[in-house]
Amino acid sequence: MAFQIKRIYEPAKPSDGIRVLVDRLWPRGVTKANAKIDLWPKDMAPSDKLRRMVHGDPSKWDEFVKAYARELKKEPAKSAFTDLRDQAKNQHTTLIYAARDEIHNHAVLLQRWLGRKR
């Protein structure tokens, strides 16, 4: 099971497989028709508090990683995470995100965590 990540502002391609928006908020300036999103598990996205923390200060990345991992262990995020992992077992899946920072964003973490063996 391999997950790739991609910014929503990049064009959708058939090789993306299932396109999963992993942000809590709909990205600015993107129509739903152009986004071609198949799933949008909002419950799996970081809370607004965490999103603002890392967006406003990338130096808090390590703190964000720990806090986000704790959020994913609680419901409803836990179920959303498990459901996505199960759905993606037999299908190529692309995690779609809007953040400008391609290194310090939750999609990078989700890619790593979803790809781990149970």
Short summary:
The protein has helices at residues 32-35, 48-56, 61-72, 77-87, 106-115; strands at 3-7, 18-21, 93-97.
Features:
118 residues, alpha/beta, three-stranded parallel beta sheet, 5 helices, 3 strands
Molecular structure report:
- The protein contains 5 helices and 3 strands.
- Helix content is 39%, strand content 12%.
- The model has no long low-confidence stretch (mean pLDDT 93).
Strand content: 5-15%
Question: Which structural class best describes the helix and strand composition?
Answer: alpha/beta
Overall form: globular
Care to count the β-strands? 3
Q: Main sheet?
A: 3 strands, parallel
Give helix and strand order, one letter per element, not per position.
EEHHHHEH
Which stretches are low in confidence, meaning pLDDT under 50 for 5 or more residues running?
A: none
What is the radius of gyration? Answer: 13 Å
Helical amount among residues, as a percent range? Answer: 25-40%
Mean pLDDT, as a whole number? 93
Strand order of the largest sheet: 1-3-2
- Count of separate DSSP helical elements: 5
Distance between the termini: 12 Å
Per-chain topology:
Layout: E1 3-7, E2 18-21, H1 32-35, H2 48-56, H3 61-72, H4 77-87, E3 93-97, H5 106-115
Helix pairs in contact: 2-3
